[in-house]
Fold:
Amino acid sequence: MKILVIAPHLDDEVLGVGGTMARFAADGDEVYVVTITQGHTQAVIEQDKQEALAAHKLLGVKETIFLSLPAAGLDSVPHSDVNQQLIQVYKQVEPDRLFIPFTGDIHLDHQIVFLSSLVAARPINNFAPKAIYCYETMSETNWNAPYITPNFVPNVFVDISDYLETKLQAMQMYASQIKPFPHERSEEALRALAILRGSTVGKFAAEAFYLVREIF
Structure:
């Protein structure tokens, strides 16, 4: 299978789908990541790219596609432009499974990427994925306003018991993003969430997703 992970910002993909990507890659599937935004200085952009490539190599990602839309500024970009850039990525990869941010995330970039991801994935297109999942991003998905914005209620769980340490190592590659505990973007918090999600389904560790659509 071909797996495509859409990340509004670099590190979102590891936070939400790191263990799952490692598992798919180990099973022989092709894993692709597209990052939508970039930083505001060339030095930051280059550092972020190098960190991402190191993390993705560890996870077994086949190809990383860097788009160059403004971070924390997607609301200033015409929605059709975001849609078209993602459509071109879908045509290039032709993914079987798609992982996208959750619509209820507090960051507006995440909400916009969710909408554009679904526009590009309309099932009328012959390159549309057969399954679409939303992932949770620590410090984004759970910081919204409960009962006012959509709550993340997962209905798909991927056992990452054998890949949790790989995910945590990949996150360490993002030296500019990893934080000390008790920050949510710390190794301890990521480990705790994986163990919590795993215990929900009788596994040591898991990543949780919300199934948007699946076509058999």
Observations:
- The CA atoms of residues 11 and 177 lie 7 Å apart.
- The chain has six helices and seven strands.
